Amino acid sequence: xxxxxxxxxxxxxxxxxxxxxxxxxxxxxxxxxxxxxxxxxxxxxxxxxxxxxxxxxxxxxxxxxxxxxxxxxxxxxxxxxxxxxxxxxxxxxxxxxxxxxxxxxxxxxxxxxxxxxxxxxxxxxxxxxxx
Length: 131
Description:
4 helices; 131 residues; alpha+beta; 37% strand
């Protein structure tokens, strides 16, 4: 698991008042918490080939029943190959909060392909089930 501050989306996520990050052990260990429930946040990164871009971008714009239907179609966000797409994900341990952002790598730099997608409640649980 990566430190939330080391993610490309980390700086944006750190400004969200629902997220609290504390540093311990001489600044070497960082713990992020979803403030409303006090649940720790785990971070994930996945890489994909360009062919999966459309499905992932579509998923990031959905909520409610549309998100559930798309999740049923996609089944998992775990990657099985390397590629030039990188999905960063943060999910609280209680599955009440999730954040996702898709990036494309080109010339060793990450460029965002989507806005930071934030989910709470049932939508966050749906996203968590894909990880």
